[in-house]
Specification:
Layout lengths: L1 H6 L16 E4 L4 E3 L12 E3 L15 E2 L8 E3 L4 E4 L8 E3 L4 E3 L3 E6 L5 H8 L2 H9 L11 H5 L2 E4 L2 H45 L4 E3 H4 E6 L8 E8 L4 E2 L2 E2 L6 E2 L3 H6 L7 E4 L1 E2 L7 E4 L7 E2 L3 E6 L6 H7 L3 H10 L1 E3 L2 E3 L2 H5 L2 E3 L3 H39 L11
Helix pairs in contact: 5-11
């Protein structure tokens, strides 16, 4: 397959590639081509790659799905081909396949021509300039897509072949360090999840006193609802997506125009518990604590604010509890399901049972989990620094601002 693909790529542009000594500027269409393999209904043993299997910014495919339930037409790809998600290209989904398989028709199967190779081209595809370029040229309003014609018009500085290999090797080394750090983060997070389950199992075995949420809460409040035209200016409106790992943030929260009275009435204070009350069965009940002062914000109507009695329960202890299976099991038993959504309300939450040791023991549990969080944050800082290094290297190496030394 490789030799056939390369053979059809020989043209007026590539005939002198062996003698190329300097960098040249060329459209991507002269470097890569779409592989027009026969579309098939996958065999049940095929490895299937959908858009969900291409993770934003990743250079390799981390997982795949079994194709036994896939009845639609798919594209065939081979190990080493470049898979590029053409739907919503701003999501930056592209990876080198490390196995043979089939993929969604929303994924373009690409392969390099004789003048370059996929492991070099993918760094251009993941560059900020390329992502901005294709995002500005998509077609379709609700489901924006790109095409081979669009990405083919994007121009890149192309170094001699041997220099491409050197650049790709340098960037791949940094990328491998990023992936290794991400694996460490995932392992520590898995350890944290296991420890949380152990803690609450141990409390139950020791027959720790259980108390109703109604008995440790001071007040409940559903969030604010306003028509869409009120969004775009004003103050952050906290949504379910701002609840992550037991805590609430305001990252990318949409702005909502509210009155001073609404801002006060629907405020969030440090120590508040925010619970998603309307969503899919998997997400309803998602909860987190306001760890730090968020400033002037409101919270959206599909969430409910619980103001806790901190004389009885530490908010950070509650943050740990809402990440436990003991919490999730109770929520699943309480939810009321309807078409496309499930709900819980204040009466349901009143009945939530919480294992409640003394404040001193709650604090000890909090400190144990904080020590693990600190380790995660250290690794996240390492990963973020590596990402910054890689971006900086991409800016200078892929443009030729800094030349790599090649053996003569």
């Amino acid at each position: 397959m490789e030799s056939k693909t390369k053979a059809v790529s020989l043209d007026h542009f590539t005939k002198n590639v062996i003698d190329q000594k300097e960098w040249i500027t060329t459209p991507l269409s002269e470097c890569i081509q779409e592989v027009k393999n026969v579309s098939v209904v996958p065999h049940k043993k095929d490895k299937y790659v959908g858009l969900e299997n291409l993770k934003s910014g990743n250079y390799h495919i981390k997982d795949y799905a079994p194709s036994r339930n896939i009845k639609s037409i798919c594209k065939i790809f081979e190990k080493g081909y470049l898979l590029y998600g053409k739907l919503r290209p701003n999501l930056d989904k592209a990876a080198i396949a490390n196995f043979d398989g089939v993929c969604s028709t929303e994924i373009m199967v690409l392969n390099s021509k004789i003048n370059t190779f996929n492991e070099f081209i993918i760094f251009h595809i993941h560059s900020d300039n390329f992502i901005q370029y294709v995002s500005n040229k998509t077609f379709g309003t609700k489901m924006p897509r790109t095409s081979m014609e669009i990405i083919g018009d994007y121009t890149i500085p192309l170094p001699p072949f041997i220099e491409q290999h050197k650049i790709a090797a340098i960037l791949s080394t940094v990328d491998a360090s990023i992936e290794a750090t991400e694996r460490i983060i995932a392992q520590i997070e898995q350890l944290k999840k296991g420890l949380i389950q152990y803690i609450f199992h141990d409390l139950m075995v020791k027959k720790c006193v259980e108390i109703l949420l109604a008995d440790v809460s001071l007040s409940y409040k559903n969030g604010i609802y306003k028509e869409p035209h009120y969004y775009g200016t004003g103050y952050p409106s906290i949504r379910m997506y701002n609840i992550i790992n037991g805590y609430v943030n305001k990252i990318n929260a949409p702005l909502l125009d509210v009155t001073n009275e609404e801002l006060e009435f629907y405020s969030l204070k440090k120590g508040d518990l925010l619970i998603n009350r309307v969503n899919s069965i998997d997400l309803v009940g998602k909860a987190g604590i306001v760890k730090d002062e968020l400033g002037p914000v409101t919270f959206e109507s599909k969430n409910i604010r619980v103001r806790l009695n901190e004389k009885l329960i530490l908010p950070e202890y509650m943050s740990i509890f809402v990440q436990s299976c003991a919490y999730t099991r109770q929520i699943r038993m309480m939810v009321k399901s309807a078409i496309a959504q499930s709900t819980i309300n204040q009466d349901d939450l009143d009945r939530l049972l919480i294992p409640l040791p003394s404040l001193d023991e709650q604090q000890k549990i909090v400190e144990i989990l904080k020590s693990i969080d600190r380790k995660i944050l250290i690794e996240i800082d390492i990963r973020n620094n590596l990402v910054r290094i890689k971006k900086g290297l991409m800016q200078v190496l892929l443009t030729g601002k800094v030349r790599v030394k090649v053996d003569s």
